[in-house]
Amino acid sequence: MNTLAIDIGGTKFTLALFEGGRMTRRESQATDRQQGREWMLGRIAGILRNWKDIDRCGIGFGGPVDFQGQRVALSTHVGGWQDFPLSQYVQDLLGVPTIMDNDANVGALGEARHGAGGVVPLFYVTLSTGIGGGLILSDGSVYRGADSWAGEIGHLTVQPEGPECLCGARGCLERMCSGLWMERDYGRSASELFEDPAFVERYVVNLALGLKAAIMLLNPARIVIGGGIAKAGDALFVPLRAELGRQMTAWSGARVDVVTAQLGDDSVLWGGLALAETIS
Ligand SMILES: [Zn+2]
Questions:
Q1: 117 alpha-carbon distance from chain centroid
Q2: Which of 29, 45, 174, 267 has its CA 20 to 30 A from that of 250?
Q3: pLDDT score of 176 more than 90
């Protein structure tokens, strides 16, 4: 059984082919935010012209997805995706069954099955252009809530008087801690900023406020953090764990097990494989 996995993000999109449980092909290209949806779909179709023998497809999309309807709700970073039936589009293009979820849910599945998981419930956070979250329940399934909008940790308010987020609210976790805003606010990339201990000290306070809310509400066995910013490694994780230790409610016995994703740039691709395996 050959599975195509597609990861569509705010800075790049990646396609991978799995033959059984082995990744045998992978191609990644930069997202052009100005060109929008049609351009990206054209690029994806161009790559797939040379990829044969695909049996099914799993997609992780970098933005909110109506899972029941299998439609992209929107992308706040790339234009033209409003209410787009991406699953149906790929199904028509390739003639194979296709399933899609937002990239944080798919990344959560990938890490739980093939990466830094091994324990459940597991909460996965993607720290990237934006910030998303995905919860894997004790039976290994994704918790999507009543209307497939669960896990959106990026829009928890951490600074009520803070600057305005793309969603219109103030001081969202995503507004304070995502890669897009770090570059806009400071004019430097995340990797440069993490070399500055004074910056990191302020940064982890906001990030820990968001993670503390997840821990108090969900008591996950582990929090796995993926996305480009998690590549900062110990420069981020050591001060983050210390700050979480300071913030956690004293009487709570909830574990604070926060680790970096093991699949690096491929959490969503491996999750696309796991999601496609749910197609009956
Ligand atoms: Zn927001």
A1: 15
A2: 174
A3: yes
Question: What pTM was computed for the model?
Answer: 0.95
pLDDT band at residue 40 under the 50/70/90 scheme: very high
**pLDDT (tens digit, 9 = 90+) per residue, 180-204?**
999 999 999 888 999 999 999 999 9
What is the residue whose two structure tokens read 């969900």? Answer: 218
One-letter amino acid at 113 equals: R
Where does residue 145 fall: left (phi above 0), alpha (psi -120 to 50 degrees), or beta otherwise?
left
Between the CA of 218 and the centroid of ligand 1 the distance, in Å, is 21
How far does the centroid of ligand 1 lie from the alpha carbon of residue 17, in Å? 34
For residue 154, the CA-to-ligand 1 centroid distance in Å is 7
The pair phi, psi for residue 222, each rounded to 5°, is: -160, 145
In three-state secondary structure terms, 85 is: coil
Question: Average pLDDT, whole number, for the chain?
Answer: 95
Distance from chain centroid for Cα 2 = 24
The average pLDDT across 79-91 equals 94
CA of 71 to the centre of ligand 1 (A): 21
Q: How many CA atoms lie within 13 A of 127 on its CB side?
A: 29
Round to whole Å and give the CA distance between 159 and 162: 5
